[in-house]
Amino acid sequence: MKKIEAIIRKTKFEDVKDALTEVGIDFFSFWEMRGVGQAREERAYRGVVYDTSTIERLMLSIIVRDKNVDKTVACIMEAGRTGEIGDGKIFVEPIEKAYRIRTGESGNDALYIKGIEE
């Protein structure tokens, strides 16, 4: 099992979510975050220019079976790409164990309902 963490633009969230659903990844967590990176944005409001040195992004956290890592990463890269600085990053980490609290199932069985994801 692997944990995929993806930092993406807020504007690309719906595209990434739809693409993940198409490849069979229909459960993940996400939250809003701010970060500092190479992208710099300036915003003007009533003639005053504001430097926004922090950038709003979304962090996605997805736990997948080893066999689904490549297609999940490829999906996020394709759907989340604009080609400009600030498109984000993807990190892949190993997961030692997983448990389903309700049934006590562990390992790969804890990730999906039997019969849906083989």
Radius of gyration, CA atoms, in whole angstroms: 17 Å
- Number of structurally distinct domains: 1
The CA-CA distance between the termini, in Å, is: 14 Å
Number of strands: 6
Reported by name, the CATH topology is Alpha-Beta Plaits
- Give the CA-based shape: elongated
Helix and strand element order: EHEEEEHE
Notes on the structure:
The chain has a single domain, classed as Alpha-Beta Plaits (2-Layer Sandwich). The chain is α+β, with helices and mostly antiparallel strands and 118 residues long. It has two helices and six strands. The strands form two sheets. Strands 2-5-1-6 form a four-stranded antiparallel sheet, with helices on one face. It is elongated and about 60 Å long. The chain has helices at 13-22, 69-80, and strands at 2-9, 29-35, 41-45, 48-52, 55-64, 88-94.
Descriptive key words:
118 residues, alpha+beta, Alpha-Beta Plaits, four-stranded antiparallel β-sheet, two-stranded antiparallel sheet, 6 strands, 36% strand, elongated
Summary of the model, kept short:
Helix content is about 20%, strand content about 35%.
